[in-house]
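Let's practice the habit of predicting before peeking. Look at the sequence and jot down your guess about where helices and strands might fall. Then scroll down.
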Amino acid sequence: MVSYHFCTLNKKGEEMKAGIMLVVLVVGLMASVVDAQETNAVEVSYTVGVVDKYLLPTGGTVYDGRTMMQGDLTVSLPNGLYVSFWGARGFGDLKDDLRGDEVDYIIGWASDVGPCAVDIALVYYDIAPVFKGRMDNIWAPYVKVSSPEYEFGQLAVSPFGRIEVDIPEAGSSFGGGAFFSAGVDSSYVLSDQVVVNYSPSLTYDNGAYDGEKNFICAQVISLDMTVGPLVVSPNFLLTVPLQEDENREVETCFGLSVAGAF
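Done guessing? Here is the structure:
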């Protein structure tokens, strides 16, 4: 049996905690810049894209029904530490009284441990309206472990397992919970410039966003096309709940993104 303990803080305490998180991320980013100057081995990567809706592949719920612009900026150090910022901005007014815009702050470590790849991170989900004091913000530690890649000619396959625990701040409308996922990341090389990626997964959501407990099957397909220094990726996401409920039904999401690094 898993239980969660949530601390209660007043508004001043909430602002202080958010401020501490921002300070930690800024310090991490400054450390990354210093390391870049000393070793020239740091990497800065980014992604900018548009999706026709904000669909959670793990929870299988539509978080925002508007067309959304989404993007991220990640600074990665040679020792595996990284700092990342992710944001989403919707076009037009809110639809269906959904959540709206978002900015996430992520600090983590990703590296090989023995034959496996491990990604451990802490995410602070700043739910819209951004920086306006809304108490639906969430702290979310997660761990993803991937097996070594199994290669079959041009096809590479890597099974993975992932756990994310969502801990809402005091006063949040969310009750908290966790996602337990298992799946496979695969890629097929068509040419030096074109790669097809396919990632099916099965997630058990025990009610992280106050939805009913459910199993969600997600399938993500993308086509990575290298164009000069950029990678252009049309993508498609399909989520299918084991049982349709008030918050979930079969959903699709189409998107287009551009990624680069320097």
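How did you do? The longest strand covers residues 155-168.
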